[in-house]
Amino acid sequence: MGIRRRAVLFGSLAVAGAGMFGLKWSGSRAMAEAKAATVRPGEGGFAAFLKIAPDDTITLYSPTIDFGQGAHTAQAQLVAEELGVDPARIVVAQAPALPGFANAGIIEGFGAEMVSPAFAHLPASVLGLVARAIPMQMTGGSSGVRYTGQIALRRAAAGARALLTAEAADRLGVPAAQIVLEDGRARHTGSGRALRLGELAEAAAQRRLWTEPTPGAARRGRAIGQSPLRQDIPGKVDGTAVYGIDVTLPDMRVATLVMAPVRGGKLEAVDTRPARAIAGVEKVIQLEDAVVVVARGYWPALKGVRALSPRFADGGHGGLNSPGIYAAQDALRRAGKPDKTAGEGDVAAALADPAARTVSADYRVPYLHHAMMEPFAVTAHRQGDRLDIWAGLQDPLLVRHMAAEVAGLPESAVTVHTTIMGGGFGRRFPAQCEVIGQAVRVASQCPWPVKLIWSREQEVQHGSYRAQASARLTAALRDGRITAMRTDYAQGDNVEGEVHFLYEVPATERRHFAFKTNQLDGPFRSVNANPFGYWTESFIDELAHAVGEDPYRFRRKHLAEGSRHVRVLDEAARRAGWGTPPPPGVGRGIALVESFGTIVAEVVEAALREDGYPRVQRVTAVVDCGTTVNPRNAEAQISGGIIQALSTAIAEEITLDQGAVVQSNFTDYPLLRLAEAPPRIDVHFIESGAPLGGIGEPGVPPATPALVNALFALTGKRVRTLPIRDQARA
Amino acid sequence: MPIEATVNGRTVRFAGESDTPLLWALREELGLTGTKFGCGVAACGACTVHVDGAPVRSCSLPLAAAAGTVITTIEGLKSADGQLHPVQQAWIDQQVPQCGYCQSGQIMAAVALLQQTPQPSDEAIDAAMTNLCRCGTYPRIRAAIHAATGQAADAAAGAA
User: Fold this and answer.
1) Contacts of residue A632 in chain B, CB cutoff 8 Å?
2) pLDDT score recorded for residue A495
């Protein structure tokens, strides 16, 4: 079961808590509110998400927020397929942060996958109630197309289709079965008479739908499988796109802050005078664990913060450092009392088999910073019993809930204005965004709207990092096959999400040793497929070499013949020229990982630079996400995920010293630059027709192990602790 | 004393303190929010603008140093009739941006590169394009620069 993903999903419950009693909205009230917010006279609104105007303009109110994943465009394609229109004619707008726009598609999708298949058979009204109660308006989990799009939005479109068809049939006096929707019209197949959707919409939306609409399949069609241009891009090339940090309001002030260097520490004392003496500084606000300077602009606010010498306690975490965390994790594992165990078969017996050979290896991964290019920036304006928030965070309804709680206001008194996000990668899940509470508290003490911006230094040092973790993998080998595999890993809570062991091994076991520090372990693009992908696929490579077999062949013989996995692996090997000698000075490595319903194999070709760091020359990726809704965008997601993964693997590391983060900016937390990116990345999609998989995250996990495996092929050195840096140097 | 400069063809007087980085004066005084804040230490390039034709990381250029200069931001790249710059058009044609946050800076860096080197080699692109992109759009940035070269060279010739 995907505990981690469930945590990501339903983690809002921990925060929402009391929100659960809140089956407080009746569906109809929420829908009436949603309709009032978006639908004007003459227009037809369908299940909140879809609106058709008399001039035939179709507006899709997407609960997904854009951070470059292209989901809006793919969602428009799915809706266009359902309604028989050109996707370019659908305008995608951000759904308001209102309960009527809660995302039941995500509840249904993840619920069916992780909790019970019964979720797929629950009535939409019940799922809607749950989505509003949680509340759920998440962007994440590679769910924007496969769940939000194919389930929630396409269901709305299927409902609209049924109602438009019925209305057209009545007006034309023909049976509904003889009406087809195409090219933006409802046409009677017999006579060719047709009505525009725009002239049917208002009346159609008044009709009752007596059965649950059934959306069409996610198969290539007139819209699905095309690559229409993304609507968000023009605003991103002429500077007009508005991110959270760009929000500008009359009389607005700008604030920035310094937080306790050791997470968990509290503010003990600060002399605020040096900041207040700076021209443009208006206010210094002390929070429990931070000092905020409010000024007429970011620069005076930053100067104000720099002028301060606050004293923070260390919360008892002052002894923590990165090597100590690895050592403590090793000790915890050696103590042998796992918190959770998963798997099947008798691993202990297989490992004790006298005819088997046992191989074991230890792997370590550091904390990773998400490094979204736009630092946190949240604007809040408190006016009496009313609160407005401007933010780009990965769940606006949850932002509303959290802000209301901090402000001591009912949710209905809080309006969240959602902006696009300058990156996220998991950092912007509200439950881990202290910036929400900070902005609300600051605004509560100010007469103006205040935009709170985190500096890059605060961003780097106060992340919700990909967890530092260590693992010991142990396998039994007999007659060239793996007979048992055990993974003992020490890491924070909620770690099983997106862990899929792909190989046919009779006995497997994963034992989790929960290890908590003062750090906020957050979801990081591809969550646990990320560390598990690295150590599992590296270790499989080690096992192949242990039995003297080619790593691709070794993987292949442990996969079910005829499976999607074999097809993906074979295609990657074929396209990468596996088996042919690589260019001189180049090593080739392969890895295969399934995550978010998508199977990806990657082959990396790498050399060593003079300084011993790897230089990736070429990556071949083969992807089976069922059906590729928008191939050009899917390619961008896979390719970008590969580059991000290589960046993290080669040189990224957050370390702790005396409980505080050592790194502070891109100067000591280096991201891969254009010159270091692979000059060649080939992405190929297999259209298997399997249920839709995600596309935002699955490209990430195979890249690191494929690179580490390539370096082993090149140098004979196995890198078991990330980042790689110059460890492969001979 | 107010500092004067020419921004996107218009003479402006900045009211901010002379140590204010150009980035914040552009964003907060002039409302030109297309230029982005990424790191504050000239490491990421999200704040790249042109100062007297050269690409400059505006987060680390104090207003005092910008006095009397000619500054172009992403908002000033379009032609007078609203036509996108060929590099901007190439960015759309190649569908370069993902989250888009770094792209103003990337485009400004690319335009500056093409003004210097109308037909840059891959090595020249490597050397000039040091701006960070966390989404990993680098392959499409490279492709868009190559795609823009013919057009950009023509536009430059036309302007000369």
Assistant:
1) 95
2) 61
Asked if residue A135 has a cis previous peptide bond (ω within 30° of 0), the answer is: yes
Range of the domain at B51: 3-75
- Are both B25 and B50 inside the same structural domain? yes
Write the ipTM: 0.95
CATH class of the domain defined by A3-237: alpha beta
Side-chain-facing half-sphere of A524: CA atoms under 13 Å: 27
Please tell me whether residues B68 and B122 are part of one structural domain.
no
Whether residue B14 is contained in a domain is answered as: yes
What is the C-alpha separation between A66 and A424, in angstroms, rounded? 10
**Would the CB atoms of B74 and A236 count as touching at under 8 Å?**
no
CB A260 within 8 A of CB A297: no
Rounded-to-integer distance, Cα A129 and Cα A102, Å: 9
- According to the model, what pLDDT value does residue A2 have? 35
Q: A567 by DSSP, 3-state: which? A: helix
**Which residue of B lies nearest to A525 if distances are taken between CA atoms?**
B135
A689: Cβ contacts below 8 Å, ≥ 6 apart: A219, A626, A627
Interface of B with A in 16-55 (CB under 8 A): 16-17, 19-21, 24, 27-29, 31-41, 43-44, 46
Q: Using a CB–CB cutoff of 8 Å, tell me whether B134 touches chain A.
A: yes
Do B29 and B67 belong together in one domain? Answer: yes
Q: DSSP readout, chain B?
A: --EEEEETTEEEEE-S-TTSBHHHIIIIIS--TTS--S-SSSSS-TTEEEETTEEEEGGG-BHHHHTT-EEE-GGG-S-TT-PPPHHHHHHHHTT--SS-TTHHHHHHHHHHHHHH-SS--HHHHHHH-----TT--HHHHHHHHHHHHHHHHHHHHHH-
Does B97 contact chain A (CB < 8 Å)?
yes
Same domain for B91 and B64, yes or no, is no
Question: In this structure, are B53 and B111 located in the same domain?
Answer: no
The two tokens of residue A602 are 């990657």
CATH of the domain at B135: 1.10.150.120
Instruction: Say which of A425, A456, A639 has its CB closest to residue B40.
Output: A456
Run of H or E including A516: none
User: Which of the 8 DSSP states describes residue A89?
Assistant: G
Whether B56 and B91 share a structural domain: no
Q: Which of B91, B96, B127, B105 is nearest to A676 (CA)?
A: B127
**What is the helix (H) or strand (E) element at residue A78, kind and residue range?**
helix A71-83
Q: Which residues, 6 or more positions from A425, have their beta carbon under 8 angstroms from its beta carbon?
A: A370, A371, A372, A524, A525, A644, B134
Cα–Cα dist A386/A370, whole Å? 33
> Which residues of B are less than 8 Å from A307 in CB distance?
none
Domain count, chain B: 2
Which regions in chain A score pLDDT beneath 50? 1-26
Domain end, chosen from B75, B100, B128, is at: B75
Please give the CATH number for the structural domain made up of A244-315+376-453.
3.30.365.10
- CB-based contact B37 A243, cutoff 8 Å: no
User: Looking at the structure, do residues B90 and B147 belong to the same domain, yes or no?
Assistant: yes
Residue whose tokens read 């900041």: A275
Domain ranges of chain A: 3-237, 244-315+376-453, 324-357+465-715
Of B49, B75, B101, the one marking the end of a domain is B75
pLDDT at B160: 33
Closest CA to A419 of A471, A467, A478, A379: A379
- Put simply, the answer to whether A640 touches B37 (Cβ < 8 Å) is no
What is the model's pLDDT at position A186?
98
**Class of the CATH-defined domain A324-357+465-715:** alpha beta
pLDDT in tens, chain B (160 residues): 789 999 999 999 999 899 999 999 999 999 999 999 999 999 999 999 999 999 999 999 999 999 999 999 999 999 999 999 999 999 999 999 999 999 999 999 999 999 999 999 999 999 999 999 999 999 999 999 999 997 554 444 433 3
